[in-house]
Amino acid sequence: xxxxxxxxxxxxxxxxxxxxxxxxxxxxxxxxxxxxxxxxxxxxxxxxxxxxxxxxxxxxxxxxxxxxxxxxxxxxxxxxxxxxxxxxxxxxxxxxxxxxxxxxxxxxxxxxxxxxxxxxxxxxxxxxxxxxxxxxxxxxxxxxxxxxxxxxxxxxxxxxxxxxxxxxxxxxxxxxxxxxxxxxxxxxxxxxxxxxxxxxxxxxxxxxxxxxxxxxxxxxxxxxxxxxxxxxxxxxxxxxxxxxxxxxxxxxxxxxxxxxxxxxxxxxx
Length: 269
What we know:
By secondary structure, the chain is of the alpha/beta class. Helices cover 43% and strands 14% of the residues. It has helices at residues 30-41, 53-62, 80-89, 116-144, 165-185, 203-216, 220-228, 239-250; strands at residues 21-25, 45-50, 69-74, 97-100, 147-152, 190-197, 259-262. The model has no long low-confidence stretch (mean pLDDT 93).
């Protein structure tokens, strides 16, 4: 049998953002905010979820006048009861895309000084949160035979990140969850992938550089330079670049069980 002729107007190759309903966790600030606003600007209906309604409402206000629309709902992704309540609240929505962005940085300390509670707190949000959100919203995608899940992982763990073992371990766990889940639901029409950003310019990295400068008795500028010099582009990413990568991944319909490095060249292969 001859292969089907290439059709550049095929729906699978068209706009895979406009008109779709997408849920973004941790949407009240940082990467979640940037991803959500980028999706709304491309015509998506975006459900903004997070723990604080005030920050979510602020993002919703920023989205006024953009091509798409938004809805706000609160959730603690680490709490099974809270996630179950969110699923009930959104029972009238057809969530076609799930972006698991919510995460916590965890402690900055040697492993020997990290308490079991600190370790568990990081895994509760960064790993269990992804599991619970997928468990809540995948059934609808499987029933429809279509959907996309993008989990935010990190380049941390792929290269040393000293004094950040809980965070690095949790993000590598997200990659393992992603690839295995993709083989469970891929045959049912749902694509599951992860995006692994490198350091993103913003308050979190500024905090890290301040702590590193104090620890090593160097200046903030020296601490920042020591870090960004590891990247081929010799800089950090912007939140907007990560948001653009999410949109690009949604426009790659053959992408499944993949982990995409977006690190300005901090991870080279």
